[in-house]
Design a protein that fits this description.
The protein is α/β, with parallel strands linked by helices. It is 38% helix and 28% strand. It has two domains: 214 residues, Rossmann fold (3-Layer(aba) Sandwich); 63 residues, 2-Layer Sandwich (Alpha-Beta Plaits).
Amino acid sequence: MLDVKGLTKRYKNFTALDQFDLHVDRGELFGFVGPNGAGKTTTLKILTGLLKADGGTATLDGKNILRDRAYIRENVGYMPDFSGVYDNMKVFEYMEFYASAYRIEGPEARERYYELLEMVGLSRKAGSFVDELSRGMKQRLSLARALIHDPRLLILDEPASGLDPQSRYHLKEVLKYLNRDGKTIIISSHILAELSEMCTDIGIIDSGRMILRGSLIDILDQVNQNNPLEITIYDGMEQAAKILKEHPRVQTVTFDYHKIMVNFSGSHEDEAELLKKLLINDVKVYEFIRKPGSLENLFMKITEGKKEKVVASNEMEMESSL
C-alpha cells in the first residue's frame, strides 16, 4: 500500500532523513517509534504533503504522493501532535466545516460526522463548544475530523501525548476498532508499551534511518534473544562453567552461587541445544529460563544508549513531566 524508498530531507547542515525506507501493507496498524529529533514528524509531514522531500520516492497504492498532493488530500487522513481545533465552534459545526472542505454537505455530511462522533464517544457533545472539551475529548474530535473523508491511510503523530490514562485507553480502543474494520494506520509515539498493546507492526527510527522494522511477534522474539539466560545448577557447576565458556554463542558468564547468568546470542533452537549439551554432560539443571525482555531495552541497545530515547510506559512519561 505505502512504499517509501530513499527518502531524504535536509535543513541546511542537518540531515533529518537519510535514505529512509518504509513499507506498510494494507490493513496494518504500524507503530512508528523514535526519540525526539529522530525524523518521525518530518517523515509524516512529507507523507501528508506538508513538507517537500529533497530526494527519494513515496507511493500510495502506486500513486506518487510526493508529486500528487491532490491524491494525498483525498486518500490520507492526518492527525498532528496538536489538536488544531477551533474553540469558537460547536462540535457539530467543526465537523461540518471539515466535511465541506471535502465537498461533503447536507444530509450526507450529517450522517457521516454523527457516525464518527458516536464512534469516538462524543455524540452527546455535538452541541457543546469545542473549548468546553477536555484535552482527551479534543484529541478524539481531531481523530473524527481526520476520518471525515474516509481516507485509505490514517496518519497520527503522537496522538496520546499529554493524555490522562483514561483518555489514552479510549483513544487506543478506537484505533484498534478502526484497524479491525480494515483501516490502515500509522501512529508515531515514543511510548513503546503503548504501541506494543495495539500495533501489528513496529518500526524504530533513529538519526533519520529505519534501523529495525518487523511484525510485533518478530520484534518481541528479537527482544527475548537480546536478554540473558538464567541457569540454576543443582549439581555439576564446574562442568557447566566449562561448557558455557567454550560455547561460541555465549558472550559473557556471571556466577552467583548456584545461579549462572549468560549473555547468549542464539535462537530458541540454540537454547534447546545448549540445555541438551548440559544435560548429556551430567549437569543437573534445576532451572533454565530466558529473562523476560522489553522493547525499550532493545531500543536502547540498537540506538547505542543515547540519553534521550523512548520511555517504557505511560507512568514513566507522566513522572518525567512532573
